[in-house]
Amino acid sequence: MADAFIPTDVPVDLTNCDREPIHLLGNVQSFGTLIAISADWIVQHVSENADKLLGLPAAEMIGQPLSLFLPRAAMHRLRDAIGTASHENSVVRAFGYDLFGDGRLFDLSSHQSGHSFVFEFEPKLRGNGHDELALIQPMLRRVSIQRDTLTSAHAAAEQLRALTGFDRVMVYRFGPEGDGTVIAEAKDAEDTETYMGMHFPASDIPRQARELYKRSLLRLIKDVDDHVSPIQPQVSPEGTPLDLSMAVTRAVSPIHLEYLRNMKVRASMSVSIMHRGELWGLFACHHRAPLYIDYERRTAIELLAQFFAYEIERQEAKETSDAAGRAQRLHDRLMVRLSSGESLDTVFPTIAEEIGKVVPHDGIALYSDGEYSTRGAAPTKAQFQTIARFLNTAAASRVYATDHLSLRLPSMADATETCAGILAIPISRTPRDYIVLFRTEVVRQVNWAGNPNKPVEVGQHGARLTPRKSFEIWKEDVGARSEQWSATALRAAEAIRVTLLEVVLKLSDEVNAERKRAQDQQELLIAELNHRVRNVLGLIRSLVGQSKRSANSIEDFTAAVDGRIHALAQAHDQLTSTEWSPVPFRALLNKELDAYIAGESHRVSIEGPRILLAPEAFSTMALVFHELVTNSVKYGALSVPAGRVEVTIDHRPDGITRLRWAEAGGPPVRAPERRGFGTTIIEKSVPFELKGTADIRFAVTGLVADFALPERFITLAPDEPAPEPAGVQLAAPAPSLSGTALVVEDNMIIAMDAADILETLGADKVHVAGSVAEALRIAESHPLKLAVLDVNLGAETSLPVAQVLAAQGVPFVLASGYAGEGDQLSRFPSAPVIQKPFTIETLSKGLAKLLKP
Predict the structure, then answer these.
(1) How confident is the model at residue 547 (pLDDT cuts 50, 70, 90)?
(2) I need a labelling partner for 650 at 20 to 30 A (CA). Which of 150, 216, 665, 826 fits?
(3) Are 394 and 430 members of one domain?
(4) Among 15-19, 111-115, 630-634, 829-833, whose mean pLDDT is lowest?
(5) pLDDT at res. 30
(6) Helix or strand or coil: residue 491?
C-alpha cells in the first residue's frame, strides 16, 4: 500500500537514487568539495569542464572542487540557497534553475544531511509559464466547504487526482496500532476494482517507513522498472552510510517495488498527512503506466496535503468545542442536581440519565463504598469486583476505556454480552469508587486486504515478509469487542470525572459548611416561598371576595372566579414555558380568544407591530384582556355573529406603547350604573400595577379601551419577512434531476463546477470528459439521462458528441462562451443554448427548458 515501503531489516541510509537526476554532495565544513556523486551523472550531464572530467575515473572525482562540475555563477547561487536553510531537516527549493548557464532549466532541492549538503537537480520538462497556486486555490476551496472529515477526504482525493492525473488516489488513515483503512478513493469510472473500506495490516507500512514519512512528506516513484543509479562512494568521509532520508529521488526497497508490481502499479506517489506532528495518514496514488510529476507540481501537491491536514484539525477543533459545550452543560446540570448534599447512591438514577444524554452506552454502574448499583445491561456484582480490582491497577485519577475488555482481562471473556467494552470514571481520591459505562459485544466484519496474520516467508529477497501476491479481501469476524469509545466520549468522560470528583470532595471535605449553607438557603427559600404563597393566597382571596360582591348568582360567581384564576394560570404557564423571558402580546390575546371564540378568530383583527410583554406585566395584562374578552362575549360585540373587535398596537417614538380595544357591530352599550370587579380590573390594573394609564369609554357603537404602557414593560419583537408583493413573478423552481449525466468541458475546474451543480440538482452520477474521444467512450458505455456540452473544446468542437447523443435520444444543453455560432447550433433546434460561465441559475434555466413536459 505504501509508496516508500522500507522493510524491517533495511536501514533508512540508502545510497541509490531513481529518476536519473543530477546528484551532488558537498561538505558542510569546506563548501565546494565533492564527497559523493551519482555514477551516471557524468555521461548524462556534461559541464563546461567535460574534457577534464571525462578523463577521470569516477573514484578520482571524489574530493575535487565543485567548480570543476558547475559554473561559478551556479556555485554562488548554491551557496546563497543553502544559507536560507533554517534547520537541519529544512529543504531549500528553487524552480527553473539555469544550472549550467546554457538555458537548460532544472528544479533544485537542497538539504543538509549530517556534515554534508545534498543537492538534487531534476531536468525541468515544462517551462515557467504556469501558476500552480492559481490552479490549486479552487481545489482548496472545494475541500474547505465539506461538512466533516470523510467528505473532506473524498473531496481532497478527487482534487488530487485531477491535479496529478493518477488513475487512482486513496486517502489512507492510520489506526492506533499502525494498521490502516482506505477512507476515501477517487478513480477512473471504468475501473471496477476498489480499495475503498479495505483494512491493511500494520506490517504493510512498518514503523521505520512511518518515521520516514514524517520527515519526507512526498515520495514519487515514476516507474517501478526504472533504472537505479548508485552513488559513489557508499559511505561518507566519516565512514558512515550516506543518509538520504530527505532526498526526493532516493530509491526505494525492492520489496516495495515487488509489492507495487503485485498490485499492477507502474507509478506511485505517497503524500504524508501530518496532524499535530504525527502521521495521521497518506494520500496514496497509483497509475498503471509510468508517470512523472515535476518538482514544482509536487510542491503544490504538498500544499494541498497540508491544507487537508489543517481541515482535519479545524474539524477536530470544532468537534472538541462542541464536546466541551456538551460537557459543560452536563457539568452544570449535574452540579445543580448533586449539590443538595444527597449521597451519590441516592442521585445515581439522575446521574445515569444525564450521562446517557452525552455518552451512549448499554449499561451503567455506580461502585461506591462497596455498594453496587446498576442500570441497563451490566455485569453481576461478583463480575464487577473482578473489574474493579483490575481498574485499581490502572493509573489513578484517569479515565480508562477499552473496546476489548477480555483482551486486557481474560477472566471476563464470558461476560461480553454485558461488558465487551468499558469506560471507567474514577470518582474518589483513591482508586476505589467508580462510575462505569458498559457496551455489549458488536461482532464486526473487517475487510482485510490480505491476511493480517500472514507469517514471514522466504522469498527472493531472503527471510523477510514477502509482499502479498493477492489483494482479495480477507474477511475476518472480530468478536468480543464493543463499539469503540470516540474521542468525544472520552473528553466528556473526563469532564464528568472532574464534576463528580468535585461533588465527592465537596460532600466529604466540606460537609459541615455545606450543611450550614444549605440550612441558610433553605430558611431563605422557605421565607421567600412563604411570602409568595401569601401573595398568591391574598390575590385569590381578593378575587373571590370581589367576584362575590359583583355576582348575581352562584353560577356567575363560579364562572367569574374560575375564568380569572384560569387566566392567571395560563399567564403563568406561558411565562414558565419561556423561562420567565418576555412573551408575545399576541400569544396572550390569542390564548384568551381561543378559549371563547375558537374557530372565529377572524372576528378579531390585530394591527400594529409585534411586541413582547415583560414578565412583570404579563399577569396584569392577562387579567385585563381576560375581562375585555369575557365582557365582549357576554354583552358586547362578540356576543352576536356580526360583531367585530379591532385591537391596535401603537409603539410611539417616546417609548410609550398604546393599546386600543375597539368593539363594533354589537348591541348598543352604556356605562354601567355601578362598577363591578371586572370593570375595576380593566380600569385600575394598568395604572396601579404598571404605572400606566387606562381610559374606558362606553360608546353607543361599542366599548373602547385605551391603555398606555411604560417603555420598561415593552420590547419590539423582530420583524417577520414581509409577504411577497402582488404581481411579482417568482423564479421557477430548479429542475429535479436523476440518473447519470455527462459534462463535456475542456477546462478541468469549470467541468467540476458544472458537475457539482448537476449533482446539487439531483443527478446520481456525473461523468466529466475533456475531449470528444473520451465523451464518446462514456456515451457508449453508460446509459445517460442528459448532458451539458461545451461547444468549443480547444482544437475541436463537441458537435460530434451532440450528433451521437441526438441519435441515442439523450437530451442535452449546449453551452458556449462565444457569439456568432448560430449556424452550427441550429443543427440541434431542440437543444437549449446557454452562455458560459456555468451557474446554478443558467443551468437550471436551460435544463428547465430541456426537461419541460
Answers:
(1) low
(2) 665
(3) yes
(4) 15-19
(5) 43
(6) helix
Q: How many domains does the chain have?
A: 4
pTM to 2 decimal places: 0.51
Amino acid of residue 619: S
What does the pLDDT average to over 440-457?
A: 71
Where is pLDDT greater, at 498 or 269? 269
**Strand ranges for 175-289 from DSSP E:** 180-187, 199-200, 218-221, 229-232, 267-275, 278-287
* Structural domain includes residue 142: no
- Partnered with residue 400 across adjacent β-strands are 424
298/270 Cα distance (integer angstroms):
11
Pairing state between β 833-835 and 812-816: parallel
Tell me how far apart the terminal alpha carbons of the chain are, to the nearest angstrom.
51
Q: Which of the 8 DSSP states describes residue 718?
A: P
d(CA 264, CA 581) in angstroms, rounded, equals 69
Burial state string for 30-69 with b = 16 or more CB within 10 A and e = fewer than 16? eeebbbbbbebbbeebebbeeeebeeeebeebbebebeeb
**460: part of which helix (H) or strand (E)?**
none
Q: Which three cell numbers stand for residue 416?
A: 461480553
Rounded percentage of the chain residues whose pLDDT exceeds 90: 20
Mean pLDDT comparison of 215-219, 438-442, 534-538, 659-663, highest-scoring range: 659-663
Residue 512 scores a pLDDT above 60: no
Residue 271 has pLDDT above 90, yes or no: yes
Residues 640 and 700 in one domain: yes
232 domain-assigned: no
Q: What is the CATH number of the domain that holds 483?
A: 3.30.450.270
Phi first, then psi: give them for residue 235, nearest 5 degrees: -130, 160
**Residue 603: which CATH number?**
3.30.565.10
**Domain range enclosing 767:** 740-851
CB 679 within 8 A of CB 672: yes
User: Residue 187 is which amino acid?
Assistant: K
Do residues 2 and 201 lie in contact, with contact meaning Cβ atoms separated by under 8 Å?
no
Radius of gyration in angstroms for the set of CA atoms belonging to the chain, rounded to a whole number: 40
Those residues with Cβ within 8 angstroms of residue 54's Cβ, 6 or more apart along the chain or in another chain: 42, 46
* Domain annotation covers residue 363: yes
Average pLDDT over residues 444-449: 74
Please determine, for residue 44, whether its predicted confidence score (pLDDT) is greater than 60. Answer: no
- Look at residue 112 and tell me if it is in a domain: no
With CA atoms as reference, report the closest residue to 791 among 761, 748, 834.
Answer: 834
Grid coordinates representing 586 are 399576541
Domain identity same for 663 and 750: no
Cα separation, 453 vs 239, in Å, equals: 39
Q: Are residues 684 and 699 in the same domain?
A: yes
Angle at 499 (CA atoms; ends 494, 503), nearest 5 degrees:
145
Q: Are 802 and 819 in contact (CB under 8 A)?
A: no
What is the strand order of the sheet 765-769 is part of?
A: 765-769, 740-744, 784-790, 812-816, 833-835
The interaxial angle of helices 487-509 and 295-338, nearest 10 deg, is: 30
- Mean pLDDT over residues 171-193, rounded? 86
The whole-number average pLDDT for the span 481-485 is 85
pLDDT at 567: 55
Q: How many angstroms separate the CA atoms of 313 and 309, rounded?
A: 6
Residue 397 shares a structural domain with residue 432: yes
pLDDT at 531: 42
Q: Around Cβ 759, how many Cβ atoms within 10 Å?
A: 14
Helix (H, G, I), strand (E, B) or coil at 553: coil
Residue 715, strand partner residues: 612
CB-CB contact of 126 with 105 (8 Å): no
Spatial separation of the C-alpha atoms in residues 783 and 766, rounded to whole Å: 12
Same domain membership, residue 609 and residue 502:
no
Tell me how far apart the 2 most distant CA atoms of the chain are, in Å.
133
Contact between residue 191 and residue 208 where contact means Cβ atoms under 8 Å apart: no
Q: Which residues pair with 565 in a beta bridge?
A: none
- Together in a domain, 401 and 502: yes
Calculate helix-pair angle for 748-760, 132-144, nearest 10 degrees.
20
- Kindly report the average pLDDT of the chain as a whole number: 77
